[in-house]
Amino acid sequence: MKNLSEYPQAIATAETAVLRAQQAARALGEQMAARKAEFAHVIAFDKSLTNEAQRKGEMQALEQTDEPYLELQSQHQAAKDAVIEAQIAADLQGRLWQVARLEAESAVVRERRLGALEY
């Protein structure tokens, strides 16, 4: 158990971990979007794709078969999971602080009651 004065730093550290995880997930999302933009560029200049249905089908095919895109997609999902895990850890620190604070307040009340009984 931590001293009450240690919790603000622990909470800040946990919240910073959440931010870093969010930044990593966002960066991977941006890489995925850039890859999809590359797909769109290729599709736009493919003369064999004559209608919207063909273009959509080709986009889906690229998204499902392009190994670099699939790897980015997997990494992005793992990064989003890491954000959730980091948020859980940050929430836990906040709850532990609340419990420690309530225990400290309870101890003060007990001491006051004991002091009142002594008189």
Please provide a written account of the structure.
- The chain has helices spanning 7-44, 52-65, 67-118.
- The chain has 119 residues and is an all-alpha fold.
- It is 87% helix and 0% strand.
- Helix 1 packs antiparallel against helix 3 (67-118).
Mean pLDDT: 94
What's the total number of strands? 0
Are there runs of 5+ residues with pLDDT below 50, and where? none
Secondary structure class reads mainly alpha
- Fraction of residues in helix: over 70%
Cα shape: rod-shaped
Describe the sheet with the most strands: none
Attribute tags:
single chain, 119 residues, mainly alpha, rod-shaped
Topology:
Layout: H1 7-44, H2 52-65, H3 67-118
Summed up:
This protein is mostly helical and 119 residues long.
